[in-house]
Design a protein that fits this description.
384 residues, mainly alpha, two-stranded parallel sheet, disordered N terminus, disordered C terminus, PPR_rpt, Pentatricopeptide repeat-containing protein 2, mitochondrial, mRNA processing, mS27/PTCD2
Length: 384
Amino acid sequence: MAVASWRSNRALLETVQRSATSGVLLGFRPGCCRWALGGKRYLLTDDIMKLEEFQKAKVAVSYRLNGKKEIYFKDIEEKMKKKGLILKEELKTLLHLCETQDDMELARSAIYRYHAENRNISLGEYKFGPLFIRLCYELNLEQSAVELIKDQHLHGFFSDGTSFNILMNILFIKGNYEGALEILLEMKNQGIKFNKDTYILAFAICYKLNNVNSFNTCMTLLDEAMIKAEILTRRASSFAIALALKQNQVAKARYIYSQIMNPDSKACNNLNILIHAHSDMLKGALKILEESTEKINSSFVKKQEFSEEVLTTVKEKLDGHPALQARFKEICDKLRASGQVIPQTVDAILCVIPQGRKPHIFSFNKRQTSRRTLQSLKLSLVAE
Protein backbone atom coordinates (compact mmCIF):
# COMPACT_ATOMS: atom_id res chain seq x y z
CA MET A 1 0.00 0.00 0.00
CA ALA A 2 2.78 2.41 0.97
CA VAL A 3 4.72 1.54 -2.19
CA ALA A 4 1.66 2.20 -4.36
CA SER A 5 1.09 5.53 -2.61
CA TRP A 6 4.76 6.45 -3.02
CA ARG A 7 4.60 5.71 -6.75
CA SER A 8 1.38 7.71 -7.08
CA ASN A 9 2.90 10.71 -5.33
CA ARG A 10 6.09 10.39 -7.37
CA ALA A 11 4.08 10.36 -10.61
CA LEU A 12 2.07 13.37 -9.49
CA LEU A 13 5.21 15.27 -8.55
CA GLU A 14 6.76 14.56 -11.94
CA THR A 15 3.54 15.77 -13.61
CA VAL A 16 3.78 19.01 -11.66
CA GLN A 17 7.42 19.47 -12.63
CA ARG A 18 6.68 18.85 -16.32
CA SER A 19 3.71 21.21 -16.14
CA ALA A 20 5.87 23.98 -14.71
CA THR A 21 7.95 24.07 -17.87
CA SER A 22 4.91 24.98 -19.94
CA GLY A 23 3.15 27.09 -17.34
CA VAL A 24 0.29 24.61 -16.95
CA LEU A 25 -0.55 22.92 -13.66
CA LEU A 26 -3.30 20.35 -13.30
CA GLY A 27 -5.66 22.26 -15.53
CA PHE A 28 -4.59 25.72 -14.38
CA ARG A 29 -3.35 27.97 -17.14
CA PRO A 30 -1.62 31.21 -16.12
CA GLY A 31 -3.24 34.21 -17.74
CA CYS A 32 -6.15 32.08 -18.92
CA CYS A 33 -8.70 30.74 -16.50
CA ARG A 34 -8.79 29.47 -12.94
CA TRP A 35 -9.09 25.77 -13.77
CA ALA A 36 -9.66 24.24 -17.17
CA LEU A 37 -13.30 23.69 -16.20
CA GLY A 38 -13.74 27.17 -14.74
CA GLY A 39 -13.28 29.41 -17.74
CA LYS A 40 -14.10 32.52 -15.71
CA ARG A 41 -12.27 35.80 -15.50
CA TYR A 42 -10.62 36.99 -12.36
CA LEU A 43 -9.04 40.26 -11.26
CA LEU A 44 -5.81 39.29 -9.50
CA THR A 45 -2.66 38.25 -11.29
CA ASP A 46 -1.13 34.78 -11.01
CA ASP A 47 1.73 36.01 -8.85
CA ILE A 48 -0.80 37.12 -6.20
CA MET A 49 -3.12 34.14 -6.37
CA LYS A 50 -0.12 31.75 -6.40
CA LEU A 51 -2.32 28.76 -7.15
CA GLU A 52 0.48 27.02 -8.99
CA GLU A 53 2.91 27.36 -6.10
CA PHE A 54 0.20 26.17 -3.71
CA GLN A 55 -0.44 23.05 -5.79
CA LYS A 56 3.27 22.25 -5.95
CA ALA A 57 3.61 22.64 -2.20
CA LYS A 58 0.67 20.29 -1.61
CA VAL A 59 2.21 17.63 -3.80
CA ALA A 60 5.58 18.03 -2.09
CA VAL A 61 4.07 17.63 1.39
CA SER A 62 2.10 14.56 0.31
CA TYR A 63 5.26 13.07 -1.21
CA ARG A 64 7.26 13.75 1.93
CA LEU A 65 4.78 11.95 4.19
CA ASN A 66 4.78 8.98 1.82
CA GLY A 67 1.12 7.97 2.23
CA LYS A 68 0.93 8.56 5.98
CA LYS A 69 -1.74 11.26 5.85
CA GLU A 70 -4.25 9.33 7.98
CA ILE A 71 -1.65 8.69 10.66
CA TYR A 72 -0.69 12.38 10.67
CA PHE A 73 -4.32 13.45 11.03
CA LYS A 74 -4.83 11.02 13.94
CA ASP A 75 -1.72 12.36 15.65
CA ILE A 76 -3.05 15.93 15.37
CA GLU A 77 -6.45 14.85 16.71
CA GLU A 78 -4.82 13.14 19.69
CA LYS A 79 -2.66 16.16 20.36
CA MET A 80 -5.70 18.43 20.38
CA LYS A 81 -7.60 16.09 22.72
CA LYS A 82 -4.67 16.24 25.14
CA LYS A 83 -4.59 20.05 24.75
CA GLY A 84 -1.08 19.95 23.36
CA LEU A 85 0.43 22.90 21.54
CA ILE A 86 -0.10 23.02 17.77
CA LEU A 87 3.19 24.05 16.20
CA LYS A 88 3.53 26.26 13.15
CA GLU A 89 4.99 23.54 10.92
CA GLU A 90 2.32 21.09 12.05
CA LEU A 91 -0.47 23.44 11.01
CA LYS A 92 1.23 24.17 7.69
CA THR A 93 1.53 20.47 6.95
CA LEU A 94 -2.06 19.84 8.00
CA LEU A 95 -3.42 22.52 5.67
CA HIS A 96 -1.37 21.23 2.75
CA LEU A 97 -2.75 17.72 3.30
CA CYS A 98 -6.44 18.72 3.29
CA GLU A 99 -8.35 17.22 0.38
CA THR A 100 -11.97 16.96 1.55
CA GLN A 101 -14.56 18.85 3.57
CA ASP A 102 -14.03 16.40 6.45
CA ASP A 103 -10.31 17.21 6.40
CA MET A 104 -11.21 20.88 6.63
CA GLU A 105 -13.17 20.34 9.85
CA LEU A 106 -9.99 19.22 11.58
CA ALA A 107 -8.09 22.09 9.96
CA ARG A 108 -10.64 24.62 11.30
CA SER A 109 -10.31 23.24 14.82
CA ALA A 110 -6.53 23.35 14.57
CA ILE A 111 -6.65 26.96 13.35
CA TYR A 112 -8.75 28.05 16.33
CA ARG A 113 -6.41 26.23 18.72
CA TYR A 114 -3.27 27.63 17.07
CA HIS A 115 -4.60 31.19 17.07
CA ALA A 116 -5.68 30.98 20.71
CA GLU A 117 -2.15 29.89 21.61
CA ASN A 118 -0.36 32.44 19.41
CA ARG A 119 -2.67 35.46 19.15
CA ASN A 120 -0.06 37.68 20.82
CA ILE A 121 2.84 36.47 18.68
CA SER A 122 2.25 38.06 15.30
CA LEU A 123 5.36 40.08 14.53
CA GLY A 124 7.34 38.33 11.82
CA GLU A 125 5.24 35.17 12.10
CA TYR A 126 4.17 33.10 9.13
CA LYS A 127 0.86 34.26 7.60
CA PHE A 128 -1.55 31.34 7.45
CA GLY A 129 -4.41 33.41 6.03
CA PRO A 130 -3.50 33.25 2.32
CA LEU A 131 -2.73 29.52 2.59
CA PHE A 132 -6.14 28.79 4.11
CA ILE A 133 -8.00 30.94 1.56
CA ARG A 134 -6.22 29.22 -1.34
CA LEU A 135 -7.17 25.87 0.14
CA CYS A 136 -10.83 26.93 0.37
CA TYR A 137 -10.59 28.10 -3.24
CA GLU A 138 -9.31 24.72 -4.37
CA LEU A 139 -11.98 22.78 -2.48
CA ASN A 140 -14.85 25.15 -3.37
CA LEU A 141 -15.38 25.91 0.30
CA GLU A 142 -15.32 29.69 0.10
CA GLN A 143 -18.15 29.90 2.65
CA SER A 144 -15.78 28.43 5.25
CA ALA A 145 -13.30 31.17 4.40
CA VAL A 146 -16.03 33.80 4.76
CA GLU A 147 -17.07 32.46 8.17
CA LEU A 148 -13.56 32.33 9.56
CA ILE A 149 -12.39 35.67 8.21
CA LYS A 150 -15.41 37.37 9.83
CA ASP A 151 -15.16 35.48 13.14
CA GLN A 152 -14.12 37.86 15.90
CA HIS A 153 -12.35 35.03 17.73
CA LEU A 154 -9.91 34.82 14.80
CA HIS A 155 -9.19 38.53 14.42
CA GLY A 156 -5.47 38.79 13.81
CA PHE A 157 -5.19 35.41 12.12
CA PHE A 158 -6.11 37.03 8.80
CA SER A 159 -4.02 40.11 9.48
CA ASP A 160 -2.80 40.56 5.89
CA GLY A 161 -4.54 42.20 2.94
CA THR A 162 -3.71 39.27 0.66
CA SER A 163 -6.16 36.96 2.46
CA PHE A 164 -9.02 39.41 1.99
CA ASN A 165 -8.05 40.16 -1.60
CA ILE A 166 -7.95 36.50 -2.62
CA LEU A 167 -11.30 35.82 -0.95
CA MET A 168 -12.92 38.80 -2.66
CA ASN A 169 -11.49 37.56 -5.93
CA ILE A 170 -13.00 34.10 -5.37
CA LEU A 171 -16.43 35.58 -4.66
CA PHE A 172 -16.09 37.89 -7.67
CA ILE A 173 -15.35 34.91 -9.92
CA LYS A 174 -18.46 33.14 -8.66
CA GLY A 175 -20.65 36.20 -9.18
CA ASN A 176 -21.26 36.66 -5.45
CA TYR A 177 -20.73 40.42 -5.53
CA GLU A 178 -22.79 41.07 -2.39
CA GLY A 179 -20.63 38.61 -0.47
CA ALA A 180 -17.47 40.18 -1.88
CA LEU A 181 -18.66 43.61 -0.73
CA GLU A 182 -19.24 42.24 2.77
CA ILE A 183 -15.64 41.01 2.86
CA LEU A 184 -14.44 44.41 1.66
CA LEU A 185 -16.32 46.16 4.48
CA GLU A 186 -15.06 43.55 6.96
CA MET A 187 -11.51 44.28 5.83
CA LYS A 188 -12.12 47.98 6.39
CA ASN A 189 -13.68 47.38 9.83
CA GLN A 190 -10.70 45.26 10.91
CA GLY A 191 -8.35 48.07 9.93
CA ILE A 192 -6.49 46.06 7.29
CA LYS A 193 -4.60 48.41 5.00
CA PHE A 194 -5.86 48.60 1.42
CA ASN A 195 -3.33 48.17 -1.38
CA LYS A 196 -3.70 48.80 -5.10
CA ASP A 197 -5.20 45.35 -5.67
CA THR A 198 -7.79 46.00 -2.97
CA TYR A 199 -8.95 49.15 -4.74
CA ILE A 200 -9.22 47.28 -8.05
CA LEU A 201 -11.35 44.63 -6.39
CA ALA A 202 -13.41 47.17 -4.45
CA PHE A 203 -14.31 49.28 -7.49
CA ALA A 204 -14.90 46.20 -9.66
CA ILE A 205 -17.30 44.77 -7.08
CA CYS A 206 -19.18 48.07 -6.82
CA TYR A 207 -19.28 48.30 -10.62
CA LYS A 208 -20.79 44.81 -10.88
CA LEU A 209 -23.42 45.58 -8.23
CA ASN A 210 -24.30 48.80 -10.08
CA ASN A 211 -26.73 50.35 -7.64
CA VAL A 212 -26.95 53.55 -5.63
CA ASN A 213 -25.42 52.01 -2.51
CA SER A 214 -22.48 50.48 -4.36
CA PHE A 215 -21.90 53.78 -6.18
CA ASN A 216 -21.84 55.67 -2.87
CA THR A 217 -19.46 53.08 -1.40
CA CYS A 218 -17.17 53.39 -4.41
CA MET A 219 -17.11 57.19 -4.25
CA THR A 220 -16.48 57.14 -0.49
CA LEU A 221 -13.50 54.82 -0.93
CA LEU A 222 -12.29 56.96 -3.82
CA ASP A 223 -12.47 60.13 -1.72
CA GLU A 224 -10.69 58.44 1.20
CA ALA A 225 -7.94 57.23 -1.12
CA MET A 226 -7.41 60.75 -2.44
CA ILE A 227 -7.32 62.19 1.08
CA LYS A 228 -4.66 59.63 2.01
CA ALA A 229 -2.77 60.46 -1.21
CA GLU A 230 -3.08 56.83 -2.33
CA ILE A 231 -2.06 56.26 -5.94
CA LEU A 232 -4.89 54.43 -7.66
CA THR A 233 -4.11 52.26 -10.64
CA ARG A 234 -5.56 53.02 -14.03
CA ARG A 235 -7.52 49.80 -13.81
CA ALA A 236 -9.17 50.71 -10.52
CA SER A 237 -10.11 54.14 -11.85
CA SER A 238 -11.58 52.56 -14.98
CA PHE A 239 -14.05 50.53 -12.92
CA ALA A 240 -15.04 53.66 -10.98
CA ILE A 241 -15.58 55.59 -14.22
CA ALA A 242 -17.68 52.81 -15.72
CA LEU A 243 -19.84 52.66 -12.59
CA ALA A 244 -20.33 56.43 -12.63
CA LEU A 245 -21.45 56.26 -16.26
CA LYS A 246 -23.86 53.40 -15.49
CA GLN A 247 -25.32 55.51 -12.68
CA ASN A 248 -25.61 58.49 -15.03
CA GLN A 249 -23.05 60.46 -13.00
CA VAL A 250 -21.24 61.78 -16.05
CA ALA A 251 -19.56 64.73 -14.34
CA LYS A 252 -18.11 62.38 -11.73
CA ALA A 253 -16.89 60.01 -14.43
CA ARG A 254 -15.23 62.91 -16.24
CA TYR A 255 -13.51 64.04 -13.04
CA ILE A 256 -12.16 60.57 -12.22
CA TYR A 257 -10.86 60.24 -15.77
CA SER A 258 -9.05 63.58 -15.45
CA GLN A 259 -7.12 62.23 -12.45
CA ILE A 260 -5.60 59.31 -14.38
CA MET A 261 -1.95 60.12 -15.00
CA ASN A 262 -1.55 57.97 -18.11
CA PRO A 263 -4.92 57.11 -19.71
CA ASP A 264 -3.34 55.24 -22.60
CA SER A 265 -5.13 51.90 -22.39
CA LYS A 266 -7.89 50.12 -24.26
CA ALA A 267 -10.31 50.56 -21.35
CA CYS A 268 -9.52 54.26 -20.91
CA ASN A 269 -9.78 54.98 -24.64
CA ASN A 270 -13.24 53.45 -24.79
CA LEU A 271 -14.40 55.08 -21.57
CA ASN A 272 -13.19 58.44 -22.86
CA ILE A 273 -15.41 58.09 -25.93
CA LEU A 274 -18.36 57.17 -23.71
CA ILE A 275 -17.72 60.17 -21.46
CA HIS A 276 -17.75 62.47 -24.50
CA ALA A 277 -20.88 60.82 -25.88
CA HIS A 278 -22.83 61.04 -22.62
CA SER A 279 -21.64 64.63 -22.12
CA ASP A 280 -23.04 65.54 -25.57
CA MET A 281 -19.48 66.39 -26.63
CA LEU A 282 -20.09 64.60 -29.91
CA LYS A 283 -17.62 66.57 -32.02
CA GLY A 284 -14.93 65.79 -29.45
CA ALA A 285 -15.74 62.09 -29.61
CA LEU A 286 -15.51 62.09 -33.40
CA LYS A 287 -12.23 63.97 -33.28
CA ILE A 288 -10.68 61.36 -30.96
CA LEU A 289 -11.89 58.52 -33.19
CA GLU A 290 -10.64 60.27 -36.32
CA GLU A 291 -7.22 60.96 -34.84
CA SER A 292 -6.88 57.29 -33.92
CA THR A 293 -7.21 56.34 -37.60
CA GLU A 294 -4.43 58.76 -38.53
CA LYS A 295 -1.96 57.25 -36.06
CA ILE A 296 -1.99 53.71 -37.42
CA ASN A 297 0.68 54.48 -40.01
CA SER A 298 3.25 55.12 -37.29
CA SER A 299 5.13 52.08 -36.01
CA PHE A 300 5.83 53.96 -32.76
CA VAL A 301 2.17 54.40 -31.83
CA LYS A 302 0.05 51.56 -30.49
CA LYS A 303 -3.09 51.00 -32.54
CA GLN A 304 -6.15 52.05 -30.58
CA GLU A 305 -9.12 49.67 -30.57
CA PHE A 306 -12.74 50.55 -29.93
CA SER A 307 -15.62 48.39 -28.84
CA GLU A 308 -18.53 47.89 -31.21
CA GLU A 309 -20.72 48.63 -28.21
CA VAL A 310 -19.08 52.04 -27.73
CA LEU A 311 -19.47 52.96 -31.39
CA THR A 312 -23.13 51.97 -31.23
CA THR A 313 -23.61 54.32 -28.28
CA VAL A 314 -22.03 57.18 -30.23
CA LYS A 315 -24.20 56.39 -33.23
CA GLU A 316 -27.34 56.58 -31.11
CA LYS A 317 -26.26 59.92 -29.63
CA LEU A 318 -25.77 61.31 -33.16
CA ASP A 319 -29.42 60.80 -34.02
CA GLY A 320 -30.76 64.08 -35.43
CA HIS A 321 -27.31 65.33 -36.51
CA PRO A 322 -27.08 64.30 -40.19
CA ALA A 323 -23.76 66.05 -40.88
CA LEU A 324 -22.08 64.40 -37.90
CA GLN A 325 -23.67 61.07 -38.80
CA ALA A 326 -22.09 61.16 -42.25
CA ARG A 327 -18.71 62.01 -40.76
CA PHE A 328 -19.09 59.25 -38.17
CA LYS A 329 -19.82 56.70 -40.89
CA GLU A 330 -16.62 57.62 -42.74
CA ILE A 331 -14.60 57.33 -39.54
CA CYS A 332 -16.15 53.94 -38.71
CA ASP A 333 -15.35 52.66 -42.18
CA LYS A 334 -11.70 53.62 -41.66
CA LEU A 335 -11.66 52.03 -38.21
CA ARG A 336 -13.06 48.77 -39.55
CA ALA A 337 -10.69 48.75 -42.51
CA SER A 338 -7.71 49.09 -40.18
CA GLY A 339 -8.98 46.44 -37.75
CA GLN A 340 -9.58 48.89 -34.93
CA VAL A 341 -13.14 47.80 -34.14
CA ILE A 342 -13.40 44.90 -31.71
CA PRO A 343 -16.43 42.83 -30.63
CA GLN A 344 -15.62 42.91 -26.91
CA THR A 345 -18.02 44.84 -24.71
CA VAL A 346 -16.79 47.47 -22.28
CA ASP A 347 -17.46 45.00 -19.47
CA ALA A 348 -15.24 42.40 -21.15
CA ILE A 349 -12.48 44.97 -21.63
CA LEU A 350 -12.64 46.04 -17.99
CA CYS A 351 -12.61 42.46 -16.70
CA VAL A 352 -9.87 41.29 -19.04
CA ILE A 353 -7.78 38.49 -17.59
CA PRO A 354 -4.61 40.10 -16.20
CA GLN A 355 -1.13 38.88 -16.99
CA GLY A 356 1.13 38.08 -14.06
CA ARG A 357 4.13 40.25 -13.46
CA LYS A 358 6.39 37.20 -13.41
CA PRO A 359 6.73 35.65 -16.85
CA HIS A 360 6.22 31.88 -16.95
CA ILE A 361 9.47 31.09 -18.72
CA PHE A 362 11.53 27.96 -18.22
CA SER A 363 15.25 28.49 -18.55
CA PHE A 364 17.09 25.62 -20.19
CA ASN A 365 20.37 27.09 -18.94
CA LYS A 366 19.25 26.88 -15.34
CA ARG A 367 21.54 24.92 -13.01
CA GLN A 368 20.20 21.37 -12.69
CA THR A 369 22.32 20.01 -9.81
CA SER A 370 22.81 21.02 -6.20
CA ARG A 371 26.19 22.51 -5.32
CA ARG A 372 25.93 20.98 -1.85
CA THR A 373 24.80 17.42 -2.61
CA LEU A 374 25.72 17.22 -6.31
CA GLN A 375 22.30 15.60 -6.82
CA SER A 376 19.51 16.58 -9.17
CA LEU A 377 17.54 19.67 -8.16
CA LYS A 378 14.33 18.07 -9.44
CA LEU A 379 13.69 16.61 -6.00
CA SER A 380 14.67 19.74 -4.07
CA LEU A 381 11.01 20.66 -3.67
CA VAL A 382 10.41 17.37 -1.88
CA ALA A 383 13.58 17.45 0.20
CA GLU A 384 12.79 20.91 1.52
